[in-house]
Amino acid sequence: MRIEVRSSGLKGHGRRQMRDLKYRIGIVGFGGMGNWHREIIETIDGVEVAGIYDIDEARISYAKECKIHTYNSLEDMLEDSSLDLVLIATPNQDHNPIAIQAMRAGKHVICEKPVTMNADELDQLMKVAEETGAFFTVHQNRRWDEDFLTIKEVIESKRLGEVFRIESRVHGSRGIPGDWRQEKECGGGMVLDWGVHLLDQIFLIMGDKKLEKVYATLTNITNQVVDDGFTAHLIFETGLEAVVEVGTSNFISLPRWYVLGQDGTAIIEGWNMDGKVVRAVGKSEDDIVPVRTAAGITKTMAPRRDDTICSEELPLVKSDVRDFYFNVIDVLNGKDESKIKLDEVMRVMRLMEAIFESANSKTVIDFE
User: Fold this and answer.
1) Is the pLDDT of residue 70 over 90?
2) Residue 54 bridge partners (DSSP)
3) The pLDDT of residue 292
4) Nearest CA-CA partner of 237 in 208, 257, 263
5) Measured between alpha carbons, how far apart are the two ends of the chain, in Å?
6) Topology of 143-320+350-366 in CATH?
7) Each residue of 264-295: pLDDT tens digit?
8) Nearest residue to 193 via CA among 214, 213, 167, 223
9) pLDDT over threshold 60, residue 189
């Protein structure tokens, strides 16, 4: 059955007035993330996978086992007039040329992160999208992470009073996975792999606050070619400091989130959302009882009395990662704007470049 739906309002991309209910997506790169997209898409009514293209025979065989159409080449896919969108889930260095080719072939494009290898390439893609009228967006999927959304709610609700420090970390102990992420020419390394997410989350928390200073260091513990970890100190115009860190040689992980405010502290330990908020309740502590250490006593570091603080559960925020695709469908139907703004993506790209510059020069970088 075919039904008539409103054609896309995007310039040059509303050719078919009669179409199936679903938007048809071709996936380029059917590795772990490409298949993850396929599994998500299969749960959504408004889109469907038309087929995949991959250069790996094993992945082509797997697609056939899943009863998915396989294209013989990228050109073969782009010549499919029934295709609306191209999803790019290849190694990073291929994102830019494939996106340009797809948009110039009349397709809308969803690109995995990091969208490109550098800001100049992203600028080129934005110009091609404007030139062709294509809808071009980036799959910044960790905007839907529930740990991020929960800590954002803690900060915005003023539970901690004025926040002055945010620490965001992901730690592992296995080094970099043994694939293209270890190769510089492929855009490997942890700044591009995980930094692109954590920095995007910090910017979303901070909103329009300017980032003034950046100081960063890289690690090369398990890999001498690309960074296998980094620590970035970000100073915003309000004076707030954000510490963003990725490590792959950490056998004891630090908390995923640790947020300090004038009136309290929040912590999320890891992916299981174990954490809490501890706040002052305003009672006087004039009669501080010193704590005795091995070499003396201290009032400064003595723990608070139980009657001067309260411990609360985290205000857990639930999410549905499929909202990304729901938004894509609404954009194509002319019902909404993209939730992933390309100027936001560009800001993160420029920050990653500033992190590399700071680490290489061992200097503080003026950012905005």
Assistant:
1) yes
2) none
3) 85
4) 208
5) 54
6) Dihydrodipicolinate Reductase; domain 2 (3.30.360)
7) 999 999 999 999 999 998 767 777 777 888 88
8) 223
9) yes
**Residue whose structure tokens are 């298949």:** 35
What is the tens place of the pLDDT at every residue in 75-134?
Answer: 999 999 999 999 999 999 999 999 999 999 999 999 999 999 999 999 999 999 999 999
H or E, element range at 347: helix 342-361
Q: Which residues, including other chains, have CB under 8 Å from residue 19's CB and lie 6 or more apart?
A: 2, 5, 7
Q: Which tokens is 162 given?
A: 């004025």
Pair 188, 225: CB distance under 8 Å:
yes
Using DSSP's 3-state secondary structure scheme, residue 147 falls into helix
- Distance in angstroms (rounded) separating the CA atoms of residues 255 and 155: 17
User: Pairing relation of β-strands 241-247 and 163-171?
Assistant: parallel
Q: How many CB atoms lie within 10 A of CB 64?
A: 12
- pTM (2 decimals)? 0.91
Q: How confident is the model at residue 98, as a pLDDT?
A: 98
- Section 221-233 average pLDDT: 94
Q: Are strands 85-88 and 47-53 parallel, antiparallel or unpaired?
A: unpaired
Residue 191, CA distances (Å) to 32, 93, 301 in order: 20, 15, 36
Q: Distance from CA of residue 304 to its chain's centroid?
A: 37
The single-letter code of the amino acid at 332 is L
Rounded distance between C-alpha atoms, residue 128 and residue 138, angstroms: 15
- 365 DSSP β-pair partners: 214
Tell me how far apart the alpha carbons of residues 313 and 316 are, in angstroms, rounded to a whole number. Answer: 8
Residues in CB range of 356: below 8 A, 6 or more apart: 191, 216, 218
Can you tell me whether residue 240 is helix, strand or coil? coil
- Which burial class, exposed, middle or buried, applies to 147 when counting CB atoms under 10 A from its CB (0-12, 13-18, 19+)? buried
Do residues 157 and 315 make contact, with C-beta atoms less than 8 angstroms apart?
yes
Q: Is 271 helix (H, G, I), strand (E, B) or coil?
A: coil
CATH for the stretch 3-139: 3.40.50.720
Please report which helix (H) or strand (E) contains residue 361, including its range: helix 342-361
Q: What is the pLDDT of residues 339-351, one digit of tens each?
A: 999 999 999 999 9
Q: Per-domain residue ranges for the chain?
A: 3-139, 143-320+350-366
